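Dear colleague,

Following up on yesterday's call, I've attached the two folding results inline so they're easy to grep. Please treat them as preliminary; we haven't cross-checked anything against experimental data yet. The first protein's sequence and structure tokens come first.
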Amino acid sequence: MWNITGYDWHATSAEFIEQKVSPKVRGGDVVLLHDGGHKTFGADRSKTVAAVDRLLARYNGKYEFRTIPEMMKLSPRHPA
């Protein structure tokens, strides 16, 4: 379902997340980042939010950003 993870559940900084993601980015990738904690609800995701801002700025104009539902509509369907 995803092919790049930012390891944001134990990140020490936004830069850490960016360094995990950036070397692997190619067109069509799905990057896994979290909007909540897997150990506790209400976990601080400020580093993830900051990393997303940095990644969007870095790749704006180079790639188009899509949601998963948008990507699913664009992908050719394979027979089951």
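Below is the second protein, in the same order (sequence, then structure):
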Amino acid sequence: MRILIMTMFLFLAPAVNAQELFIFPNEDQSQDQQDMDEFQCQKSATQRTGFDPMALPTTSSPAPKQKGGVGQGAVKGALLGTAVGAVTGNTKKGLKAGAVGGGVMGGMKRADSNSKKQDWANQQSQDYLRNRDNWNRAFTACIESRGYTVR
């Protein structure tokens, strides 16, 4: 799970950096005043949105389980082919046919599983970016109400 979280963090890092806000005082606020206003607005935005951009990104649901695989399918197919071959009288031929067929089916299951995992990762990324955008809007509204321009 940690590797998955770190992978998502590395994937999202460019998007997060691209969303960094620049704040400019409009009313000659001191740096100390600006720091305090930013801190209070960050806290307010986090409370309003339930999102903390300083926290390590997490997932909202577990990743789909990996399924299939050529090797795993080939072994299962070989066992089934051997059983069928024993009934029909040609165990060796059944073993080979079962292994090939099982390998193909296992590969197809793995490809479908990989596709589902990619869809899940894309959804998690979109959720994170949407939450970050909502937080940015809440922060911007707060800081602008205190006399700053945000770019």
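For the second protein, one point worth flagging: Strands lie at 23-25, 148-150.

Best wishes,
A.L.
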